[in-house]
Each structure stands twice: as structure tokens, then as C-alpha cells.
Specification:
This protein is about 0% helix and about 55% strand. It is built from no helices and eleven strands. The strands form two sheets. Strands 2, 4, 5, 6, 9, 10 and 11 form a seven-stranded mixed beta sheet that branches. It is globular. It starts with a strand and ends with a strand. The model has no long low-confidence stretch (mean pLDDT about 95).
Length: about 120
């Protein structure tokens, strides 16, 4: 029903930038129901940010002013531009689609590793 494929992770020095992409497909894919999450080693998965259909965005306090979520409806792709990266941003980053039926984020990509070296 929904297939999500992330790309763009890698190793970067502190202060550097990366742009993550998440391409979606499937009969139930909704590009405007997407969000980004991350999970660092030994920690719970946490919300990072989202971009909505009306253009509004929401971010975790830890990434505000540094990360930007965006949507390309024509390409069925969402992006996460990450600037001024810090070592504490090191994590596996996931895109996820909200399921309005269940009221939760039920669809997940495979994740992409982001490593920020100090």
C-alpha cells in the first residue's frame, strides 16, 4: 500500500550539511501526511519535523533553525535539509506516513544513517 525509500545519509563533519530524501509510492501514499523521525543508538525514536500541505512546518526543539522539511508533490518526495549538524544529530533517520485510520504513523522507510563527526 505504501512504500517509502530514504536516501542521502552519510558521514559529515560537525557544522556540515546533508539533505535526506524520501520517495514514496503505493496506492495509499499521501505525500502530505509525511514526517521525519530519528533514532540514536540506545535511545527511543523521536520526532524530527514535518511539512504540511498548507506549508506550515513543525520541528523538534533540538533541530529548530537548523533543519528544514519540504515536500515536492510532483515527485512524491519529501526532503529534510540538515544544516549546522552536530555530533548529537547522529542517528538513523526515517520518513514515515501518518495513517488517518489508526491515528498513528504506521508506514516507515528502511532508514538512512547519518553520522556527524566532531
Amino acid at each position: 500500500q505504501v512504500r517509502l525509500v530514504e536516501s542521502g545519509g552519510g558521514v559529515v563533519q560537525a557544522g556540515g550539511s546533508l539533505r535526506l530524501s524520501c520517495a514514496g509510492s503505493g496506492s495509499s501514499f499521501d505525500v502530505f501526511a509525511m514526517a521525519w523521525f530519528r533514532q540514536a543508538p540506545g535511545k527511543e525514536r523521536e520526532f524530527v519535523g514535518t511539512s504540511r500541505k498548507d506549508g506550515s512546518t513543525t520541528y523538534a526543539d533540538s533541530v529548530k533553525g537548523r533543519f528544514t522539511a519540504s515536500t515536492d508533490n510532483a515527485k512524491n518526495t519529501v526532503y529534510l535539509q540538515m544544516n549546522s549538524l552536530k555530533p548529537e544529530d547522529t542517528a538513523v533517520y526515517y520518513c514515515s506516513q501518518f495513517n488517518y485510520g489508526s491515528g498513528s504513523y504506521d508506514y516507515w522507510g528502511q532508514g538512512t544513517q547519518v553520522t556527524v563527526s566532531s
